Amino acid sequence: MCGRARCTLNPNQVAAACGFTGDGGRQTSVRTVDINGFRPSYNVSPGRYVPVAMVRRINSGVDGEKEVEPVVHCMKWGLVPSFTKKTEKPDHYRMFNARSESIKEKASFRRLIPANRCLVAVEGFYEWKKDGSKKQPYYIHFKDDMPLVFAALYDSWSNSDGEVLYTFTILTTRCSTSLEWLHDRMPVILGSKSSIDLWLDNSNQKFESLLVPYEGPDLVWHPVTAEVGKTSFDGPECIIEIQLKSTANHPISKFFTKKCDGGIKPEKEHSKETDTVVDIKKKDEPFNKQLTKAKNDEKSESSDVKKEETNESEDVKKEALTFEAEEFYASEKGKQSAGVKREFDEVKKFSHVDSLPVKKEKVAKKEDGQLSLLSYFGKK
Predict the structure, then answer these.
(1) Is-contact 172 97, C-beta < 8 A?
(2) pLDDT at site 318
(3) Distance, CA of 152 to CA of 21 (rounded, Å)
(4) Phi and psi at residue 200, in whole multiples of 5°?
(5) What is the pLDDT of residue 56?
(6) In the chain, fewer beta carbons within 10 Å around the N or the C end?
(7) What's the confidence (pLDDT) of residue 245?
(8) pLDDT, position 361
(9) Where does the record place the region Disordered (predicted)?
(10) Domain extents for the chain?
């Protein structure tokens, strides 16, 4: 959840959004750290630098007390815990989000709660709606385009060369009722100055009331191009609303037909959903046409149609047997020329066929004038 966001805010805008400056802040500017690493982007992904608002406590020199100093520190998105091996390659996708329900249970997050809380300000974030194998991205933001402020935790890690890397993770919670159709999780949005101050107050351990879905009606969304899925796609085009294709006029995108006996598809098939007959390409025209008619006739409740179906089915079977007999005769004729004899029992299965379409001069007749299957085969 929340793996992409838009952040084109400069450090002063981040400080104002988090209440460090402006009407709700104590000063006109804040200190910045490593801000040169930040590049404004409409499509920020884990591993990129983002300006993070935090407070540092420094010694004031008066009775050992510490003074709070607001800071905008540029950090990489995707937490790398300080106990990570120095020789290990950082994986910023492992912990770019942290489930707020379990931050007190996991060591990677639990030790950060007392002193490493921070804020992430962005103009909006992206979420994908799954639709089968496809995913449609949506851009989620405030209606007045004011920045969203997320609750976050940060940490520092040193590699084998002694370089220090600051990273952060965004807290998530269950989704709001208005966005349940899209996803089951969303970032923890701090929607007021009081909630921001409470989260940054490290001395206050009763912050659970902040880790809830944002239910404000000013949170809106719209579909955007699927190109947002590419990290290289970065520009104003990322947040432009698109029109989704309507499927209302096409409730059934494809029709599927079961194979009939023999592996031949029917010429037509009835669709219950649309009460129409769907044409299907014919593979074997003569046989297929009659077989389809027999199948459709089976669905009729009329007794007359059932009788016709029986006749049609018998004709189809007879035609199939006739075709098979012709094929058999052709093969036997070739065998006869090579001196191969065929026994009567081997062709007995064709004895119920009334007649066979063969050349008259090569077929002997019975006394009653009808053709005999035995006439197809040579005598000893």
Answers:
(1) yes
(2) 53
(3) 20
(4) -80, -10
(5) 87
(6) C
(7) 83
(8) 47
(9) 288-318
(10) 4-239, 282-376
Say what the pTM is: 0.65
Sign of CA dihedral 206, 210, 211, 212: positive
Q: What are phi and psi of 285, to 5 degrees?
A: -55, -60
3-state secondary structure 148-160: EEEEEEEEEEECC
Q: How many CA atoms lie within 13 A of 318 on its CB side?
A: 12
| Close Cβ partners of 288 (under 8 Å, ≥ 6 residues apart) | 264, 265, 266, 267, 282
pLDDT value at residue 355? 47
Distance of alpha carbon 224 from alpha carbon 371, whole angstroms = 76
User: Which pLDDT score, from 0 to 100, does residue 306 have?
Assistant: 47
For 203, the token pair is: 């001395």
Domain 4-239: CATH class, spelled out: alpha beta
pLDDT at 188: 98
Is residue 170 within 8 Å of residue 120, measured between CB atoms? yes
* Nearest in space to 54 (alpha carbons), one of 188, 201, 200, 171: 200
